[in-house]
Amino acid sequence: MAVGGYIRKKKGVERMKNIDLLVEEHDCILKLVESIEEAAFQMYEIHQVPVEDLRLIIDCIRTYADNLHHQKEERMLFEPMLEILGDVGEKLVRYGMNVEHDLARFYVRSLEEALDAYEINPTGKGVLQIIGHAMEYANLLRRHVDKENRVVFPFAVRELPGDVYEKVLKNMNGFQTENQTLIQEKLKQICYLHQKYVESQE
After folding, report:
1. What are the DSSP calls for 171-196, one per residue?
2. Among residues 169, 103, 174, 167, which one has the least CA distance to residue 133?
């Protein structure tokens, strides 16, 4: 029994290496979150809104964090988990991660609407609304990334059958190759924002 458990654990460690792409993307998303937090703090201090940078942040969220990451998770990893892993998969994915993805999209829409309203009528209350929605998104994403890294990914790696898991990785690698140019463009923008709002303050 102990030997079998050891083999299973070792196999899980080896398989986990192959899902590191999602964890690396989380690191990039957390860089974006840090930029959002610092931009929000600066808005709080000076009562002014960097409209162009916030538009860029929204675009990076939608293109990189959502279209290139969250929707990849939903289509390529979460769908097989829902099909195969029963009630636990349902709780983790349908009533957990997918709900949080939708909530993140709602916060981004709210941020964009607040930014639109501020451009028409730049008031102190408008600044407060923008800061509030930006921080809602940032706080959600920090918790969400932590849960996926610590709980959801290890569970999927451990419990998905080998052939299903290999298909997940194949689909992700193909998606990555097809979207490489867009990915690199967004990574450069995320680095630019991080340098401007975070690294410049260190």
Report:
1. HHHHHHHHTHHHHHHHHHHHHHHHHH
2. 103
Cα distances from 94 to residues 80, 86, 91, 100, in angstroms, run 12, 11, 6, 10
Closest of 51, 32, 13 to residue 190, by C-alpha: 32
CB contact set of 125 (below 8 Å; sequence gap of 6+): none
Alpha-carbon dihedral angle through residues 139, 146, 200, 60, given to the nearest 10 degrees: -70
The dihedral built from the CA positions of residue 31, 47, 129 and 189, taken in this order, carries a sign that is negative
pLDDT tens, residue order, the chain (202 aa):
332 332 234 444 455 556 888 999 999 999 999 999 999 999 999 999 999 999 999 999 999 999 999 989 999 999 999 999 999 889 999 999 999 999 999 999 999 999 999 999 999 999 999 999 999 999 999 999 999 999 999 999 999 999 999 999 999 999 999 999 999 999 999 999 999 999 998 7
What pTM was computed for the model?
A: 0.89
Please identify which residue in the block is written with the tokens 């991080």.
194
* DSSP for 109-165, written as a single string: HHHHHHHHHHHHS--HHHHHHHHHHHHHHHHHHHHHHHHIIIIIHHHHHHHS-HHHH
Q: Which DSSP string corresponds to 90-112?
A: IIIIIIIIHHHHHHHHHHHHHHH
